[in-house]
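B., you asked whether I could sanity-check this one before it goes into the benchmark set. Here's the sequence:
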Amino acid sequence: MDATVPFRPPLIVRLASPRGFCAGVERAIQIVERAIEKFGAPVYVRHEIVHNIHVVERLRKLGAVFVEEVCDCPTDRPVIFSAHGAPKAATMEASRRHMLYLDATCPLVSKVHLDAERHHLAGREIVLIGHDGHPEVLGTLGQLPDGAITLVETPEDVRRFEPRDPDNLAFVTQTTLSLDDTAEMVAALRARFPNIAGPHREDICYATTNRQEAVKALAEGCDLVLVVGSRTSSNSQRLVEVARRAGARDAHLIEDAGGMTDAMLEGVRRLGLTAGASAPELLVRGVLDALRRRFEVLIEEGPIQIEDVTFKLPRLLADQAT
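And here's what the prediction gave me:
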């Protein structure tokens, strides 16, 4: 063996499939790109379009300006509402100021909004299973008058909840939660309120479901599972939790290859790798390249599940699609 070639220990990398961008994220990013093409820069975006710093920085360089509220935007430029959804007050403010606005809300999040509104019109008190402060939760709460929706995060919240009428309730859920945690919450609600109305199946989106199932399939026997995604990304954080529960010795969320440390990789011989629904595949490839500089990498592809879901762009931008 050539003594000048440094020894690289073997590493088996199990790649999750599917991973990375989902249809809702792809649609939201395209809306920003097409809006810049059609209207020129700058285009304003309320909140991060998706929760990934690399995506946000790339769009910022193209001409997107990210703000927290509609009042931070000039009236003569388009404003885009992020994939997480916005409260009705935001769209009403844009209309009041006669602004051109585009809605990049994921259609699956919009479905939750419509379900909540349907239950409200039917006179039901609504319970929302979700994480306090998450933009999607704030958007859903903001669809209805104050007090119409009660947020619950834990089974203890369910035990403390005192509805106005226990027999006239409905629940909806944040789309990016853990399947197991949501099942526990739904079971707790149904145990206390047997007549509670809900969706035919919980509103966890297909992409969240598929990515969690892919991680479950690869986690057992892994010394480490790495999830590429931003810390503000709920679905990415849930993948870390799922990996640990599914048998991985350890799991970490990293923004990109720079998030890997020597201590994290010490003693690792079998590694699982996936990415949250708002993380581009380019970042996964960057992690693999970094691993190859340290290890003799052998790739194991997990069972490949094809996702063929697509969502249409807003009509105003349809002629920009290529």
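One thing to flag: The two ends are 52 Å apart (CA to CA). Otherwise nothing jumped out at me.
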